[in-house]
Specification:
By secondary structure, the protein is α+β, with helices and mostly antiparallel strands. It has helices spanning 10-16, 44-50, 59-69, 77-87, 101-109, 130-156, 174-187, 248-267, 274-287; strands spanning 2-4, 24-28, 35-39, 55-58, 92-96, 113-117, 158-159, 165-167, 170-171, 190-191, 196-199, 220-224, 227-228, 237-243, 293-294, 300-301, 308-310, 317-321, 333-336, 339-342, 346-349, 352-357, 360-363, 372-373. Strands 1-2-3-4 form a 4-stranded mixed β-sheet. A hairpin with a 3-residue loop joins strand 20 (339-342) and strand 21 (346-349).
Length: 375
């Protein structure tokens, strides 16, 4: 049983394929039995048309049934839930660990035992169907188009005497580039989420979204990860570019990251250890001369995050390619995003999305990789 808003609960959307901004109830009978969705009259017609469940129920109808049996009692939603599932002979339900505590307590008081299930609630979500892979590939195509809008702005920028970028006579800022990327995503039917346009030293923090004028002759990280409105699936892509001549160390770092990504591609296949892939990526960067560890100023430097994460109805989902050992399986869709980060240089990250196959992996990302944007 799940009670949530499917716009924010990937587990609920996976179970019902029904997007709704307000919480509703999903129930599946034991042993993979019939599925039920409960909603208000506001959403009932749309739910009947769109939801992929066996039965759609109006709370008003359930309340009428309850009142016919218990005319002198009042009933909140918890009482109605308990009433329905007891009629089905169910007295114990499995719920996600995120199930609302208040509702859970009321259900227990009404005689329903709850068994919280740790994530992932639906383990099968990690293996994507061909239809799901198609949805992710479409999301990545939308992402690439928006990415190219941002790169084009940076490419077209001029360099002022102080080493900063200008576009159409105005300083080119992270905010301007991010705004154009996000506008393109919305036009294409996707919702942007914390798009990163991070230039120079700001890029040494992997999750810094970026602010202010963008520098020339320095790395600019663009990380774009929208959710497509129609399908609920995410895209995720990162490129690092430099308007003007890149310093030698930056060119070396960018090439080391690109080659480390190729190391991951060469190793990923069904049954392989994600930790082994991650360790090989980290070793490749070390061998290229880029050390990871605490810097004299106390900040982290080098490659200090995981190599990748699952992608689907959530931006971060199972499995992970990192320090925690997880075996990869055919049908999993995973990002591959090595990076290097040093405050005196900035950051470099390149990210593609692959699908694991029996004898290797297939790259779903169609987007060029280049560093310098020269006149």
């Amino acid at each position: 049983m799940i009670y949530a808003a499917s716009e924010s609960s990937a587990d609920l959307f996976y179970a019902t394929r029904f997007f709704a901004p307000d919480p509703f109830l999903f129930l599946q009978e034991p042993n993979g039995g019939k599925t039920h969705l409960f909603t208000s009259s506001l959403e009932i017609d749309r739910a009947k048309r769109c939801a992929q469940v066996d039965h759609v129920h109006d709370w008003g109808d359930i309340r009428t049934q309850y009142t016919a049996i218990f005319p002198n009692r009042t009933a909140d939603e918890a009482i109605l839930i308990a009433f329905f599932i007891k009629q089905a002979g169910i007295y114990e339900v499995q719920v996600p660990a995120s199930f609302p505590l208040g509702l859970g307590q009321k259900l227990k008081e009404a005689g329903i035992d709850l068994e919280p299930v740790d994530d992932p609630f639906w383990p099968q979500r990690a293996i994507k169907s061909s239809e799901e892979i198609g949805h992710i590939a479409s999301a990545l195509a939308i992402t690439a188009h928006a990415m190219n809008v941002g790169i084009a702005m940076i490419r077209q920028a001029t360099i002022d005497p102080h080493g900063f970028l200008h576009h159409d006579g105005e300083p080119l800022t992270s905010e301007r580039v991010r705004g154009e990327i996000n506008a393109q995503l919305v036009r294409a039917g996707a919702m942007p989420s914390h798009t990163i346009v991070s230039g120079g030293a700001q890029g040494a923090d992997p999750h810094e979204e970026g602010y202010g004028p963008l520098p020339a002759h320095a790395p600019i990280i663009l990380d774009v990860f929208p959710r497509v409105d129609a399908t609920g699936y995410w895209g995720d892509m990162t490129r690092t570019v430099c308007r003007g001549q890149a310093p030698q160390r930056l060119r070396q770092a960018w090439e080391a990251v690109r080659q480390a990504q190729e190391v991951a591609f060469s190793l990923i296949r069904d049954g392989v250890s994600g930790k082994m892939v991650h360790d090989a990526v980290a070793q490749s960067l070390t061998d290229a001369g880029f050390i990871t560890g605490t810097l004299p100023n106390g900040r982290q430097g080098g490659f200090f995050h995981g190599t990748g994460h699952g992608l689907g109805l959530e931006i971060h989902e199972a499995p992970r390619i990192g320090q925690k050992d997880q075996k990869l399986s055919t049908g999993q869709v995973i990002t591959v995003e090595p990076g290097l980060y040093y405050p005196d240089m900035g950051g470099v990250r390149i990210e593609d999305v692959i699908v694991v196959e029996p004898d290797g992996c297939r790259n779903l990302t169609v987007q060029e990789k280049f560093l310098e944007l020269l006149d």
